[in-house]
Write a structure and sequence with these properties.
Elements (H helix, E strand, L loop, with lengths): L1 H37 L5 E9 L2 E10 L4 E4 L4 H4 L13 E3 L3 E10 L3 E6 L16 E7 L2 E16 L4 E15 L4 E21 L2
Antiparallel strand pairs: 1-2, 1-10, 2-3, 3-5, 4-7, 5-6, 6-8, 7-8, 8-9, 9-10
Length: about 200
């Protein structure tokens, strides 16, 4: 009888030890998974497509930085600027004069996806002051250099399993600022808002 009680006690203690070990292992795995998912990426570069209405309209590259910002090498100017640049300039291609850098904030993550958006979006109704346009880049068109200011919302996802970015750009309006004239030469309001996707296709480094 005593032997039976002893064996039962040993069995119960063994089961308890296994349960504790399993719980600790699961908790450690969970913590490790969260640490890996939430770990900031180093600077990496991707090839990517610009997509409008499910059609690829242009391609570019972009860099993602460890501090949460991205740098886009080329914007789809033929879509953004077709109604605002002087017609006599359009016999020449609009070329990006410098890349666009913008900060992103991490909104959260799950086991497969991290979610982002741009952090400085300003939505003042009807406002066209330069400080309401938080996304800027310069282009050279012929002999002219323009600064392009966008008021836009960017929502992005990063898929860990496939190493793929998808960023949805919702553009409400833009201004074209002439550096030579030191003045705003055009303002474009998109009604409805212009929606573009920036989709990574290949990781370069």
């Amino acid at each position: 009888m005593k032997k039976n009680i002893l064996w039962v006690a040993v069995a119960l203690m063994a089961d308890l030890a296994i349960c504790l070990l399993t719980a600790c292992t699961k908790e450690e795995d969970k913590q490790n998974l969260q640490a890996n998912v939430n770990m900031s990426l180093p600077q990496v570069t991707y090839e990517a497509n610009w997509v409008v209405d499910r059609m690829v309209i242009d391609n570019t590259k972009f860099d993602y930085f460890y501090d949460g910002g991205i740098r886009v090498w080329h914007m789809p100017n033929q879509v953004l600027l077709k109604d605002v640049l002087p017609i006599d300039q359009w016999n020449l291609p609009a070329n990006d004069f410098n890349e666009m850098y913008l900060p992103l904030q991490n909104l959260g993550y799950n086991t497969s996806t991290t979610f982002y958006n741009n952090i400085n979006y300003n939505t003042i109704p009807g406002a066209f002051a330069s400080d309401s346009f938080d996304t800027k880049y310069n282009i050279r068109n012929g002999e002219e250099v323009y600064s392009i200011h966008l008021a836009c919302m960017i929502d992005g996802t990063y898929e860990h399993d496939t190493d793929q970015w998808t960023m949805k750009w919702t553009i409400d309006k833009l201004q074209v600022y002439s550096l030579s004239d030191d003045s705003v030469i055009a303002t474009q309001t998109f009604e409805p808002a212009l929606t573009m996707l920036l989709v990574s296709t290949k990781r370069l480094k």
